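Quick one:
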Amino acid sequence: VLFRSYQLFPIFEREGISTLAIDFRSHGGSDAASVTQEELLSDPDQLIHDVRAGLDFLEAQDSIVADNRIGVMGLSVGANMAVVANHMANSDEEWGVRTTVSLSPRLSAITSLAGTEELDLASGLYVAADDEQPQADDCVALEGMTGMPTNSQLVSQTNGAHGLELLESSNDVREGTVSWFSDWL
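Output:
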């Protein structure tokens, strides 16, 4: 994993939560996708396969990972895909996702990546900087669409921090993320 998630992994480990970090195609240290970046970020038949591959890997770890205790967390594009995974889990039991955390999600991208504007969401935490638009408004909208438990957290004094920058700049976001998974997994 090439992103600076080192700040979060030890907190998860302290709480007894195992983690798997993936890079989407054409992101981080992953190989380039065979499609354009625009298609990768908007076509509902692209990144969903990257998420599914991660879930398939976890399901294969049945002696280590309880299939009823899988959560998905994403930042930026990953936040959008975490919400799509939430939607898929409510539409298809094979997805096995119990809860999600999304940092800087964007509703228009989520509906594009889900292939529908009729999202079926359960159990999600949505986080954005309070001065990051449209993500801050989208967090509140997503909370309103999500079954219980749900929450949106708008973080102030971050100068519009987005995704990883928000995670790194706010101890409240890091601790809140871990608490969410500890409470709901």
